[in-house]
TrEMBL record:
One Gene Ontology term from the biological process aspect of the record: intracellular signal transduction
UniProt source species: Branchiostoma floridae (Florida lancelet)
Record protein name field: Echinoderm microtubule-associated protein-like 2 isoform X2
Disordered, as annotated region: 1-101, 336-404
Coiled-coil stretches noted in the UniProt entry, renumbered to this chain: none
Bias (Polar residues) ranges: 60-70, 336-356
Family annotation (InterPro entries): Beta-prop_EML-like_2nd, Beta-prop_EML_1st, Doublecortin_dom, Doublecortin_dom_sf, HELP, WD40/YVTN_repeat-like_dom_sf, WD40_repeat_dom_sf, WD40_rpt
């Protein structure tokens, strides 16, 4: 989301209780949350809002540092008194400036009723612009204080010399509200006589009411009754964050504001913690009704004091009651927009019939009332929406009148002239309707459906067990690879910690986390591991740390639930006290450094580090009371004394310009701290007799740009790994860090070096494991060639296809790589590169051909045996989201982002493709396609959640009732009668991305937008069907596929292109009847 600009004025004011401590409990960095903060050059200190019930970190202190100020101590404590900005600004100034005062008037931004404040500006009292802003903030109340001064014409002033005597100016926190007559509103004179004084008796008729005029006035007042009364008083409301329900703030609303509703919502954003700022919608807390405009807060919702604030995400509704969720308004009443209504060709119906009739997916053309806006398809594939008919929509599901909470009801079908709405062959028990993302869906039950079949809403008699994780997360992680005493490689992917044995080629997995893992640390005893996870999108998905035993995989401690904010930057065990302490830096605004007694689950000490990004943190190996943190333009040394963490301001001082980022850190055997930075320099910090760490050695331009990782070997050799130059360089620390004349450069395909570890620590064989930014782990040394140990995709992974009769599957990603894997050996069989990013793939029925669709409308046909190119064809300019061969292999169907299905004839054993037909009828881009078993029909779903059916040989849409008994060769479409049960009764913003039916027809795998993998019975036709579920990642599960023999399930997804293989296992004691295939 781009930068959102808003206005600040009297309409919104934040209440900050004086008893709340400082420290922002959550949210993103201030520049992402509020433009007013991001654009201020010298902002006054504003205490952030904290929930009263949450423990707070020590209050943040704002200091002003100048050349005239000297530190009074070596360490800074959070309890020191503030050095205020005003005391510094009033200090020494030149005395030769003119003393003549200029009288000016200042008005409040956006408030035409503010009388103004007169100031005499002279050099003795106010010496610079910053001092003026501080004084104005005391006199003129604004939500964020006075941060800018504008002329009445809108020009922002930057210097006192621009103020002119006798002129007027506007004070604002952000941008100036234009079009307001500042200073034009004045108080009326008082009258001390009756209004009737001086009235002549002969003119009484002039003062009598005309009954006709009275009627017209009453009529006008009746018509305007819904408008906001000018006498409405200001009111205070409480807003609660949709994503962090423990974050709330109080807002003062002024009914006379000149701001629009959108700008008011943006100004509210700073009061709460949000995952997707700024605020875009408000809902009442009790009834969950959407607030459509500012006036509703003073009319319909004047009795509601608590509201839920949503960003770009949908409303996360509360748990359903025993009686079910009931809508407070008609389904479409909450959509306050106007659409042109096309003339319908159907017969005029009674209101009852209009409610009962419907098609497989009602649209604006088929309905007499405008439908709600449609749901954009997930966060799919970073593509730009087509300009055809796509509209911005709201992801929140809206119950439809009598079909609240997505309840599934069977209804009688009424007569209609629209062939796509009803069918004369359908009876009362044949039609099922439900609402999915605000769209009314109508599905037809197969005539052969057996009602005596095993309960389709129960959990299946099979479960999934994670067997193998392909790839590695290296594109954004560091120090996430280590070698265990058993020789296993330990690293993490998505929510899973992998322990891979290279000799036995086996894997073990720790699956205790519920969100993506961000960092890890190995205990000095080499038996325990600490891993930290990020905060998820669901309210109960908190960032926290888990300490566990890598031998038994048992969890020993869970640390920091509801303490950490967005995630964990870095972790580290202490060394001298045998790892009793664990340090962590969270990803909140203040990047709080905390030290934990992890066995007792209590905080020993904590402090705020730096508002900018913190990349690294660790205990000093020789002294547990010393800690180091580093990141964007800073490197801080800390001393832990008496339950407090104090900063050593004399240590870590750079000579000259600071690097933009400190990107790597290591320790020498003598206790020196070695750092690498984004400029390619390696710096060595040594401690002197005064226990101050000073710069001792500097290796300038050791690498081109960033030094991502450093590793000190047991023989005193320092290894450094570069990101851009991909070089591995050795330095002799025993001889003043001179080059050791040993250097290797990795290929561009490997990527930059992220982590370096010794394969056999303490031995002189020199064998290393390198983890790279392209998600590879390679093995070798400075003298030998590096070979690949672990490999995977390095960018988003959406395309997945399984071989029709082999234990093999194909993946294709945004990294332009197409890979064929063996599910039996977990090895890569071949990998080829194509010209453009890929997002769809399929095998021909005989398994000889693999076809891949790209983001530019090009599809590529490859030989499935070796990956060699067979043919390629440019279909259009839009990406190909879905691709599928017909069961006999004679046709290839492709769903494009231009809302069209392209059909190609397959000739010469796949060496020739000829365009056969175009199927048009969708109003949004295609997402899923399925063929019927006889190849005569297609079913397709688009990003607007519309399910359509097609008669292929006639190139036209087919009546949904006609296809009710069609047997589908595959089931990847997320809509249909047989997949009704996968849609939750209340969707809570969760979207279904992908489904796959097993070959035996008894299981249905589902992946959603929250990273959940679910396993249902098939068919799943019962409301609120039960399932087995696993948390695979923190973002989209992009694809799921069963192997041809149903022995395994393959899944893709996550920010790190996770690829996982799950074994399908039969559970005991459950009915094992198989389902029919429909």
């Amino acid at each position: 989301m781009g930068e959102r600009r808003g206005k600040v004025q009297k309409g919104v004011r934040f209440f900050i209780p004086s008893d709340l401590p400082g420290g922002d409990p959550g949210g993103k960095a201030p520049e992402n949350n509020s433009l007013h903060i991001a654009r201020v050059e010298h902002p006054p200190y504003i205490p952030p809002i904290l929930p009263p019930s949450k423990p707070a970190y020590p209050e943040s202190r704002q200091t002003v540092t100048t050349n005239n100020l000297n530190s009074e101590s070596d360490f800074s404590d959070d309890d020191d008194d503030l050095t205020t900005a005003r005391s510094v600004l009033d200090s020494r100034q030149p005395l030769n400036q003119p003393r003549r005062a200029r009288r000016v008037t200042f008005y409040r931004n956006g408030d035409p009723h503010w009388k103004g404040v007169n100031f005499a500006i002279n050099n003795k009292r106010i010496r610079n612009m910053e001092a003026l802003l501080i004084l104005l903030s005391e006199k003129i109340p604004l939500p964020y204080g006075v941060r800018h001064v504008y002329t009445l014409g809108g020009k922002r002033l930057t210097d006192l010399t621009e103020l002119e005597h006798g002129k007027s100016y506007v004070c604002a926190s952000g941008e100036m509200v234009k079009g307001v007559d500042y200073g034009r509103k004045t108080e009326r004179y008082w009258h001390n006589r009756k209004p009737t004084a001086g009235k002549r008796r002969g003119e009484n008729y002039l003062y009598k009411e005309d009954p006709v005029d009275r009627l017209s006035i009453d009529s006008r007042q009746s018509m305007m009754s819904d408008q906001l009364s000018p006498r409405s008083k200001p009111r205070v409301i409480t807003i609660i964050s949709n994503t962090h329900r423990d974050s709330r703030g109080k807002i003062l609303l002024n009914p006379r504001t000149s701001q629009n509703f959108e700008d008011i919502l943006k100004d509210m954003t700073g009061a709460i913690k949000m995952t997707n700022p700024p605020i875009e919608a408000l809902y009442t807390f009790s009834t969950e009704q959407k607030v459509q405009g500012f006036g509703q807060l003073f009319r319909e919702f004047r009795d509601c004091d608590i509201f839920i604030a949503c960003g770009s995400e949908s409303l996360k509704r509360g748990p359903p009651s025993s009686e079910g969720y009931k809508s407070d308004a008609p389904a479409h009443a909450q959509y306050d927009h106007t659409q042109p209504i096309k003339q319908s060709t159907r017969k005029t119906q009674t209101p009852q019939k209009q409610q009962m009739s419907g098609s497989s997916s009602d649209s604006g053309e088929d309905s007499l009332t405008p439908p709600p806006p449609s749901q954009a398809y997930r966060s799919r594939r970073r593509s730009v929406q087509s300009n055809a008919t796509q509209t911005d929509i709201e992801a929140d599901p809206k119950p439809l009148d009598d079909f609240a909470d997505n309840s599934i009801d069977t209804l009688a079908v009424q007569d209609s002239d629209d062939p796509y709405v009803t069918s004369p062959v359908a009876s009362e028990d044949d039609v099922v309707r439900m609402a999915i993302h605000g769209r009314r869906q109508t599905f037809f039950r197969p005539t052969s459906y057996d009602k005596t079949y095993v309960n389709p809403g129960s959990r299946p008699n099979k479960k999934l067990k994670l067997e193998w994780v392909y790839g590695y997360r290296g594109y954004d992680a560091r120090d996430n690879l280590c070698v265990l005493p058993s020789g296993e490689l330990m690293y993490f992917v998505a929510t899973v910690v992998v322990m891979y044995n290279p000799r036995k080629e086996t894997q073990r997995h720790y699956i205790g986390h519920t969100e993506d893992i961000q960092c890890m640390s190995h205990h000095p005893s080499e038996q325990y591991v600490a891993t930290g996870q990020m905060a998820g999108q669901l309210p109960d998905a908190h960032a926290h740390i888990r300490v566990w035993d890598h031998v038994t995989l048992n969890t020993l401690a869970v640390i920091g639930l509801e303490t950490f904010q967005n995630g964990i930057c870095c972790l580290g065990f202490s060394k001298q006290n045998h790892g009793n302490y664990l340090m962590a830096v969270d990803e909140g605004d203040n990047h709080v450094l905390s030290v934990w007694d992890w066995q007792a689950d209590k905080i020993v000490a904590k402090t705020k580090t730096h508002p900018d990004t913190v990349v690294l943190g660790a205990f000093h190996p020789h002294e547990d009371s010393i800690l180091i943190t580093a990141g964007k333009q800073h490197m801080y040394f800390w001393k832990m004394v008496g339950g407090k963490i104090l900063r050593d301001k004399k240590s870590g001082v750079f000579e000259g310009e600071k690097p933009k980022f400190i990107t790597g850190m290591e320790f020498s055997a003598t206790g020196d701290v070695i750092t690498g930075d984004s400029s390619g320099n390696i710096l060595v910090w040594s401690r002197d007799d005064s226990n101050i760490f000073n710069l001792q050695h500097a290796i300038m331009r050791a690498h081109e740009k960033s030094v991502f990782t450093l590793r000190m070997l047991s023989d005193g050799t320092l290894l450094s790994g570069g990101g851009v130059d991909r070089k591995l360089v050795a330095w002799d620390s025993l001889r003043g860090y001179i080059p050791a004349k040993a250097e290797r450069q990795l290929s561009e395909a490997n990527g930059g070096i992220r982590t370096i570890v010794e394969q056999n620590a303490g031995q002189a064989d020199g064998l290393l494991y390198l983890a790279t930014s392209n998600n590879l782990i390679i093995q070798g040394s400075l003298q030998t060639k590096f070979t690949t140990v672990i490999q995977g995709h390095s960018e988003e992974l959406w395309a997945l296809a399984v071989h029709p009769h082999e234990h093999a599957f194909l993946t294709a990603g945004y990294d332009n790589h197409v890979c064929l894997w063996s599910s039996a050996t977990h090895k890569l069989l071949w990998r080829v590169s194509v010209e453009k990013p890929c997002l769809s793939a399929t095998f021909s029925p005989n398994g000889a051909l693999a076809v891949v669709g790209t983001t530019v409308g090009l599809f590529v046909a490859l030989n499935a045996y070796d990956g060699s190119l067979v043919a390629s064809f440019q279909v259009g300019t839009e990406q190909l989201d879905a691709i599928r061969f017909s069961p006999d292999g004679s046709l290839l169907a492709m769903g494009s982002h231009d809302n069209t299905i392209y059909l190609f004839s397959v000739l010469d054993d796949g060496r020739t493709f000829r365009k056969a037909a175009l199927l048009k009828g969708h109003k949004n881009f295609l997402t899923h396609i399925d063929w019927s078993s006889d190849g005569r029909y297609l079913q397709s779903v688009d990003g607007d959640y519309e399910l359509l059916f097609w008669k292929v040989d006639e190139n036209r849409r087919e009546n949904p009732a006609v296809t009710r008994d069609v047997t589908w060769h595959t089931q990847t479409c997320i809509l249909g009668y047989n997949v009704l049960g996968i849609w939750p009764a209340r969707e809570n913003g969760i979207d279904i991305n992908t489904v796959s039916r097993s070959e035996s027809g008894d299981l249905l795998a589902v992946g959603d937008s929250q990273g959940f993998l679910k396993l249902y019975r098939y068919p799943s036709t019962q409301k609120k069907a039960q399932s087995h579920q696993w948390k695979m990642c923190s973002s989209n599960v992009t694809n799921v596929k069963f192997l041809y023999d149903d022995g395994y399930l393959l899944t893709t997804g996550g920010m790190d292109a996770a690829l996982m293989q799950w074994a399908v296992q039969v559970t005991e004691g459950i009915n094992r009847n198989r389902a029919k295939r429909y």
